[in-house]
Structures are given as structure tokens and as C-alpha cells.
Design brief:
It is built from seven helices and five strands; from the N terminus they run βαβααβαβααβα. With 168 residues, the protein is α/β, with parallel strands linked by helices. Strands 2-3-1-4-5 form a five-stranded parallel sheet, sandwiched between helices.
Length: 168
């Protein structure tokens, strides 16, 4: 309740912006993926390997429900979380959902050398990113209460979020 939840594509800066935002607003920061990893005592990649993406999504949903029950957090969601209606429903109207909007070109640059994200560990990574990005962007927009451009420094973007949330 009363949390600020950042959503958006992998690499849009949910965690780095979220940490700055938490510091500036005196809220506690929770990174959803890190929370899942601690709870399961496994990395996200290990969870995908052992239970498949579907298993990961079920754990993610459970964690969304758990976090929405807490208060005054800044939550950096996983990039796939808000593409599932069941997770949007958990947060909608209870917390403020902020979509960090970053262009595909910048995302590609930022994720060029990524080894941590199971969905991107494949030779046709650029094509997968493009497809996912185009499919997901309207979904993030639809889920969000507020859209903030995330192409500035994390600190500047955090201030942009603070102003947008105040104006809402
Ligand atoms: C995913 C994004 C990741 C992580 C998992 C799946 C996705 O989070 O939850 O690899 O489906 O976009 P980040 O957005 O923090 O990379």
C-alpha cells in the first residue's frame, strides 16, 4: 500500500533509479528480482533453469502480492512482471505504478554485454529484444499511472518521478 512501483523493459533503469528514489524520499528500496533470489536461495537464471519461465512467473506473482501488502516502499519490478494482468491487478489502485520509458536503442546499448538475464542469452538476442520491446511497451503504458522518460541520469530521473508523483 502506498508504494511507488517502477515498471519497464529490462535495462530501463528500474533498480538504479529506484535506489535514488528511495534515498531521496526516505522510503525502503526493494528490488523484486533480488527479493525473489533471496526467498528462493537461487538466482533468477537458476530458477528459469529448474522450473522454467512459467515457474518463475508463479513465484514472481506470489512476490508481487507479498510486496503490495507492505507500505512505503520503492519497488523495482522485474521487466516481465507488469506484462501479466494478474500482477497489474495486484498493484493497481493500491500503489503508484510508474513506467520508465527508454528507447530501444538505449536499451540495446545497455544490455549489449548482459549475461544475467535468461531471456537474452541467445544468439538472436537483438531480434528477441526488438520483438519483446514492441509487444510490451503498450502493455507497460496501459498498466502505469504515470510515464516518466528514463534516459537521463538515474538521479535526474528519480527527481522526475518525484515531481510526477506529486503532480498526480
Ligand atoms: C525479465 C526481466 C528481469 C527478470 C527476468 C525476466 C523479463 O528483470 O525478472 O530475467 O521478462 O523482462 P529486469 O527487468 O530487472 O532485468
Amino acid at each position: 500500500m502506498n508504494n511507488i512501483v517502477l515498471c519497464g523493459f529490462m535495462g530501463c533503469g528500474k533498480s538504479t533509479v529506484g535506489k535514488n528514489l528511495a534515498r531521496k524520499t526516505g522510503r525502503k528500496f526493494v528490488d523484486m528480482d533480488a527479493y525473489i533470489e533471496k526467498k528462493q536461495e537461487m538466482t533468477v537464471s537458476e530458477i528459469f533453469e529448474k522450473y522454467g519461465e512459467e515457474g518463475f512467473r508463479d513465484i514472481e506473482h506470489e512476490v508481487c502480492r507479498e510486496l503490495a501488502g507492505m507500505s512505503n516502499l520503492v519497488i523495482a519490478s522485474g521487466g516481465g512482471a507488469f506484462t501479466f494482468e494478474r500482477n497489474v491487478k495486484v498493484f493497481k489502485g493500491v500503489d503508484t505504478i510508474v513506467f520508465l520509458d527508454v528507447s530501444l536503442d538505449i536499451i540495446k546499448q545497455r544490455l549489449k554485454n548482459d549475461t544475467r538475464r535468461p531471456l537474452l542469452q541467445r544468439p538472436d538476442k537483438d531480434r528477441v529484444m526488438e520483438e519483446l520491446y514492441n509487444k510490451r511497451l503498450p502493455v507497460y503504458r496501459g498498466a502505469a499511472d504515470i510515464v516518466v522518460k528514463g534516459e537521463n541520469t538515474p538521479l535526474k530521473t528519480a527527481f522526475a518521478v518525484i515531481n510526477a508523483v506529486k503532480l498526480k
